[in-house]
Amino acid sequence: DAGVTQSPTHLIKTRGQQVTLRCSPKSGHDTVSWYQQALGQGPQFIFQYYEEEERQRGNFPDRFSGHQFPNYSSELNVNALLLGDSALYLCASSTRDRVRNEQFFGPGTRLTVL
Amino acid sequence: AQSVTQLGSHVSVSEGALVLLRCNYSSSVPPYLFWYVQYPNQGLQLLLKYTSAATLVKGINGFEAEFKKSETSFHLTKPSAHMSDAAEYFCAVSRNTGGFKTIFGAGTRLFVKA
């Protein structure tokens, strides 16, 4: 089992550009959550996808959007990048099984905005 | 609403000494509480979780935490620190163990001196 995988590992963009980050959940998981972790801070919840729909959203602007595919993988899109979007973006997968569910985190994508 | 406060952004201990990382939470509903560890350039790894089954929770690598409702605390301890414990530790709260967004504290960096 490969666990949660994310791509790319690192990314450098300039202000105003758009970026797409990708996440493949752990085998057997159907729910994907995205978190932003700025340097020196704890992760902050961006949104969560289940059954290809956004189910919950944190306090992030509409520049942050996402998608979930039928195979449960997910993308995070950020438009009109700002310097403040520089962060580690973490993907976490889980299931709706209330007996055994647990969030598993991927290694993250390090985004640098210049 | 839910929130987490970690007391002390940096904690330094000697190898073999007791590790104590402090966490206080706020929650309007019965909380699920977690401790995660993050090594440099890696994602988050779950150390342990409280799900109301028992107030003293044992986790991996010799860590444990005690849920104290009266003090709204969930402090993490380990009797004897090892050099390999040096990392960033995050306390987190959620409404369940995997299907709901997780709120993280700002983190505590643990240094272990030889």
Textual characterization of the structure:
The complex is a heterodimer of chains A (114) and B (114). In chain A, the strands form two sheets. In chain A, strands 2, 4, 5, 6, 9, 10 and 11 form a seven-stranded mixed β-sheet that branches. In chain A, strands 1-3-8-7 form a four-stranded antiparallel β-sheet, with no helix packed on it. Chain A is globular, with a radius of gyration of 13 Å. Chain A has strands at residues 5-7, 10-13, 19-24, 31-37, 44-50, 53-57, 64-68, 74-78, 87-94, 104-105, 109-113. Chain A has 114 residues and is mostly beta strands. In chain A, a hairpin with a 6-residue loop joins strand 4 (31-37) and strand 5. With 114 residues, chain B is an all-beta fold. In chain B, strands 2, 4, 5, 9, 10 and 11 form a six-stranded mixed β-sheet that branches. Chain B has a five-stranded antiparallel β-sheet with strand order 1-3-8-7-6, with no helix packed on it. Chains A and B meet through strand 4, strand 5, strand 9 and strand 10 of A and strand 5 and strand 10 of B.
Instruction: Calculate the terminal CA-CA distance of chain B, rounded to whole Å.
Output: 41 Å
Count of discrete alpha- or pi-helical segments spanning 4 or more residues of chain A: 0
Low-confidence blocks of residues of chain A: none
Beta-strand residue fraction of chain A = over 45%
**Mind describing the biggest β-sheet of chain B?**
6 strands, mixed
Number of helices of chain B: 0
Q: What percent of the residues of chain B sit in helical stretches (DSSP H or I)?
A: under 10%
